[in-house]
Amino acid sequence: WRRMIPEKAGDVITRLMLEKMEEDEAKKKARQEMMAYSKKQEVCEEEFTNSLRSVQNEIQMVGKRRFDLLDKLKRCQVELEAKKAESMKLKRKFKVRMKPYRFPHIKIPFNIGAFAIRQRLSVILQGGQALITFEEQRVTSQILKVPKCFVPCDSDTVIVKPKIMTLDPAVKFEVHLDVSRRELHISNVFSSLPEERIKDRLEMSFSRPSRGGGEVERVEYNGNTRTGQITFLYPGVAEGLALRGKFTVDMECEKNMDVGPVYRHSLHRFQTFCGIPKRTILLDDIGDVEDEENLQDHLMIHFQKPSNCGGEIEYITVNTSRGKALQAFFSCEKMAEEA
Fold first, then answer.
1. Would the pTM of this model clear 0.85, i.e. be above it?
2. 173-271 belongs to which homologous superfamily?
């Protein structure tokens, strides 16, 4: 029994050593796996950091772009308001009148006429100024000889200075519009053929009487704009084709193209106007007055009296708002009568 103890102890020691070696191997393997997972975690953290940085940069770029777009929108809105104000000013300043006329021998429903464009005579009325138009020219001449006029206004006296007023330059002209009877405009000419071949195909197609065409005198074509112009030898063909709006042309295959009339315009009767109204004077250096209507009434009463060198008043307007300008318009017909 005593001999068996060392043998068993040796077996136990051997088994324990084997187990220890297995545990060491498992521990080493676990350490390697842990190192691998640690490196993988570091890679994932780095990828997350880069992705987060990229998203943050993109957010900053989007925010900057949004800010730039908002700034651009504000500038565009300011420009739009300025354009609207300028458009309204031009609409008030210019008057367009159309005198349409027709030719009985032209059977085409297009308006052919003359457009009379006339700029309205005007002057800028600043704050502290007034305009008075008298019925008689002699009254204006009398008042302009007075350097200062003392106008009673309630418990105070307003001092005004009569001055000659010069109108802004103005123009008048006519634009005559006509429709060509021999020329036809074509557009949407899409083809992969060379330009010379396209012109040949256009000439052949528009020369066919079966399609409403006629003998072609000249063909023009612009490959950049895909548009052209057909000039027929005799009048009347272009009118009929323009009424259709579409025409079929033989290219690589049959293709529909847009056709329309060719307009001609010219400038006539250009005139310029620049002068001084003979029955209107400018009252300057008007002091600060709160009640504009009250001041207007007192000015009218004062300048209607013959004792003040006045006379019958046709029109009066007052601007007492400092820093605010008004635009006063004059009738061209009445200006012509004064001249």
1. no
2. RRM (RNA recognition motif) domain (3.30.70.330)
